[in-house]
């Protein structure tokens, strides 16, 4: 999860998020090089009284500064489009979970099971136990098996919400009357935090998302216990 003074993204916990991090570094390096070149030209023009006659009127330079930006845009667009299509790929999900946004909590329904669903509320500050994070912990976590394709169906009951978990590279709007879908694969076990990312009213800041990725055997034990309690 994020920590104070952090400048970059959270550590990737899914293949798609790893690709997004690589693309971010790729684009940032291009921006850095362009900024360095422009800064150098500005300093050179301001600090010297000499004028290069080949810069004042040069067909070759005009050709270069027309073609070069187009090449740079292609170098950014191609990997961007690749990741865009990767994020839309949903191949044979092992588990489907329906996430419904409410004012101001999330409810989860495991549609592959007959009666497995629960509401997920934020744990109030006064009820937190040592090691839990304020405004991020919930009373019921969304438990998923690691290294398995998970499909998330996202909708809302009242107003616009957004189901987002940064370390998994997932962000999907929850729209009343509309069912959106996204998918992810948790590449390692862990607890991953997110929050509603669409302003949805007074308590918008108080509807966190907690995804816990566990080995398949642990997930089966958890689902059995949840079904017995239901």
TrEMBL record:
InterPro entries: CcO_II (IPR045187), CcO_II-like_C (IPR002429), CcO_II_C (IPR034210), Copper_CuA (IPR001505), Cupredoxin (IPR008972), Cyt_c_oxidase_su2 (IPR014222), Cyt_c_oxidase_su2_TM_dom (IPR011759), Cyt_c_oxidase_su2_TM_sf (IPR036257). The gene is COX2. This is Cytochrome c oxidase subunit 2. Component of the cytochrome c oxidase, the last enzyme in the mitochondrial electron transport chain which drives oxidative phosphorylation. The respiratory chain contains 3 multisubunit complexes succinate dehydrogenase (complex II, CII), ubiquinol-cytochrome c oxidoreductase (cytochrome b-c1 complex, complex III, CIII) and cytochrome c oxidase (complex IV, CIV), that cooperate to transfer electrons derived from NADH and succinate to molecular oxygen, creating an electrochemical gradient over the inner membrane that drives transmembrane transport and the ATP synthase. Belongs to the cytochrome c oxidase subunit 2 family. It is a multi-pass membrane protein. It catalyses: 4 Fe(II)-[cytochrome c] + O2 + 8 H(+)(in) = 4 Fe(III)-[cytochrome c] + 2 H2O + 4 H(+)(out). Residues 1-91 form the Cytochrome oxidase subunit II transmembrane region profile domain. Binds a copper A center. Pfam families: COX2, COX2_TM. One of its GO terms (molecular function) is copper ion binding. GO terms for cellular component: mitochondrial inner membrane. Residues 92-225 form the Cytochrome oxidase subunit II copper A binding domain. Its main location: mitochondrion. NCBIfam families: CoxB (TIGR02866). Its cofactor is Cu cation. GO terms for biological process: ATP synthesis coupled electron transport. Keywords: Copper, Electron transport, Magnesium, Membrane, Metal-binding, Mitochondrion, Mitochondrion inner membrane, Respiratory chain, Translocase, Transmembrane, Transmembrane helix, Transport. It is found in: Mitochondrion inner membrane. The keyword Nucleus does not apply. The chain crosses the membrane at residues 27-51, 63-85.
